[in-house]
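[SOLVED] Need 3D model of a two-part complex

Original post:
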Amino acid sequence: MLGQILYALPFLAQGFAVTLWVSLLVVVLSLIAGVLLGVGLVYGPLPLRWAVRIFSDTIRGIPILVLMFFVYYGLPAIGLHLPSFWAAVSALTLFKTAQVIEYLRGAVGSIPKGQSEAAMAIGLTFRQRLAYVIFPQAFRRFLPPWINGVTDAVKGSALVSLLGITDLMQAINQVIGRTYEAMPLYILGALIYFAVNYALSLASRRLERRFSFIRE
Amino acid sequence: MGYALNFNLIWRHFDKLWGGLLLSLELAVISIAIGTVIGLVLAVWYVSAGRTVRAIIAAYVEFIRNVPLILLVYLVFYGVPTVVDLAYSAPTSFVLTLSVYSGAYLVEVFRSGLEAVPRGQLDAGKAIGLTPWQRLLHVRLPTMLRITLPALSNTFISLFKDTSIASVISVPELTFGAQWINFNTFRIVEVYLVTTAMYLVTGYVLLFGLRLVERRFRAAR
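Solution:
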C-alpha cells in the first residue's frame, strides 16, 4: 500500500501544482476585477452601481458548481469555445470577484465620510483621494477577510476536477482508480489541502491581530 | 451567436428540477438540523472545557473548514465503506458529510456568540439564584442566539448552496437534475438559466424568512 502511494507521489505533485496554479490565477484575476467593480459599486453612477449590485447578488446566490457548469457547457452553446481549463478558471474567478466586491465595499464603507470630505477640501482629485486617503486606510480592513477568502479559492479549485482537469482532487481520484486504496489517498489529499489552507488562515489571523488596534 | 432560446424541453422535464429542488431542501434541512445540534453541544462544551477537550474540538473545526467539501463527500461515500463494514445510500452519505461539515462551521458561530454574552448577565443570573443549568438555558443560550442570528442565517444559506455538491455522488438533487437535462436535451443555456433562477429564488426566500426571525428577536430585546 505504502509503495503504491509513494509511486503515485510525483503524479499527485503535478496535480497539486495545477491546484495552486488555478488558485493563484483565480485569486489574482478576481482581485483586479473585484477592486475595479467594487470602486464602481461605491463611487460609480447609478446604472453602474445597479449593474454591479445585480451581478454580485446573482453570482453569490448560486452554487459555484452550477456557475461552473453554466460557463463550461453554456459558452460553447453560444459559440464561444474556451479550453476547459480557462472555462473553469473564469467561472471560479466570476464567483471570487463577487466576493472581492463585497470585501471592498465593506472596507471602503468603514472609512468615515469626513476623510473623503477633508481630501476634497484640500483639492485632491478623485484618483488622489482613493490613492492617498481612502485605500491606505481601507487596506487593513480589506486584507484579513480577503486572505480568509483565499482559502475558499483553494478549496473551490477542487471543483475543476469535475471538468476533467487533473488538479490534486482529480489526481487522487485517478490514483484510487488504479490502486483501490481509497481511504489512505483521500486522507493524504485532505492533509495536503489542510496544510495549505491552515497556513493561510494562520496568516490571516496574525494580520487581524496586527490591525486589531484600529477602532471605529 | 445563433442560439435560439427554447424552453419547451425544460418544462417537459421540469419534474427533474422541481423534485431536485425539494431533495436539495430536504438534504439541507436534515444536515443543518444535525449540524446545529453538533455545533451547539460542542460550543457549550468548548467554552467550559479544559485544554484537552478544547484542542480536540478546535482540531475538528480547523480540519473540516480547511478541506474542500467535495473531498469530504468522496471520502465518506467511497473511502469510509472500504475500512468500516458499513453500507449506506448516496443521500445518507451526503447528509452525514454535510452534517459533520456544517457542525464545524456552526461550532465557530455559536462559540463566538457564547463568548460575546456579557459577563454581567451571567453574574445577574447567579445573583438571583439560578443553577448553572438554568443560567445556560435561560440566560446564555437565548442571548447567544440573538447575537448569532445574522451569522447563522448566512451560514444556513451557504449550506443550502453546498447541497449542489451532492450531485457528484449522483444524488438526484437540483444540480444533478440540471445536468441530466443538459446531457439529455442539450438545451444548455435554458436549463442553467432556470436552475440559477430556482437557486436564487429559494435562497432569497430563505434569507427573507430568516431576516423576519431576526427582526422578531431583536424586537423582543
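Edit: Residues 213 and 219 of chain B are 10 Å apart (CA to CA).
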